[in-house]
Amino acid sequence: MTKDILDALKRRLPELSKSQRALANYILEFYEKAAFMTATRLATVVGVSESTVVRFAVEMGFNGYPELQKALQEAIPGRLTAVQRMEVTHDRLADQDVVSLVLQSDMEKLRRTIESVDRRDFEAAVSVILRAKRIFVIGLRSAAALAGFLGYYLNYMFENVHLITASGTVELLERVAGIGERDAVVAISFPRYSAATQTGVSYCKDAGASVIAITDSERSPVGVEADFVLTAKSDMVSLVDSLVAPLSLINALIVALAAKREKELTKTFGSLEKIWEKYQVYGNQNEEL
Question: Could you say which of 36, 58, 278, 284 is the most buried, measured as most Cβ atoms within 10 Å of its Cβ?
Fold first, then answer.
């Protein structure tokens, strides 16, 4: 299938039947709603039969409507405005239990992430980070939280870690100026993709640095630029992006790196524990609350 189901629909419009064209036009105009409609609901809204919806999905190259719907859901996050996300969330919630809906959705993303992560790229990413002269972690806007978490633990393992959560393109480029072939970049980007992150990754790639992307798809703006892509599902369409699967993937990366630097970390944390105890960084867990 093509990169984007919406682009494919536009190209196929002239060759579709009248009923199929009506479906395609509705999806193109109201994709933020259509992506979460059942086949029955979509048929009713457009004024065609449910069998027409199913045949339309097959005509578009899918095995059935559920597969087309999944493609729509994966294609639209980067296209939706904040207002549209709120509208979709309102329609999806209706009278449902919010806790169950969100947690079950997150569990499904974790399951899909387990299946989607390329283990060869994962191992290659670990190797690249281990041998890098400098490590740059880039994550802007909502991805800044993920970048901060990864940067926090990398600082325990490596001496030359640069966390970049800059607010704009110019500041980001200033932070990576002088980057070179011996350096590694971990770029974190999820819908709605930050344009500044994409520009920064392109600059680093052109400078010869090794680029590792943590993103939702190999076709994402940073995914197409990266040497290695670690995919995590983050397609919950709402005002708040779900970071559960991306954070879990980053956890796995940290654990893999820590396992490779076990001796160094044992020494580091041995020294740190003395500092933490002396300056009471952490409360006494034996004290009664």
Answer: 36
Give tens-digit pLDDT for 40-70.
889 999 999 999 999 999 999 899 998 888 8
CA dist 51 and 40 (Å) reads: 9
Specify the long-range contacts of residues 277-282, CB closer than 8 Å, at least 24 apart: none
Under DSSP, the state recorded for 165 is -
Instruction: Work out the angle between the directed axes of helices 39-46 and 50-59 (0-180°, nearest 10).
Output: 110
Q: Pick from 53, 66, 71: which is nearest to 8 by CA?
A: 71
DSSP 96: S
Q: How many helices (H) and strands (E) does the chain have?
A: 14, 5
Q: Which residues pair with 185 in a beta bridge?
A: 136, 211
Number of alpha carbons in the 13 Å side-chain half-sphere of residue 108: 10
Model's pTM, two decimal places? 0.73
* φ, ψ (nearest 5 deg) of residue 212: -110, 125
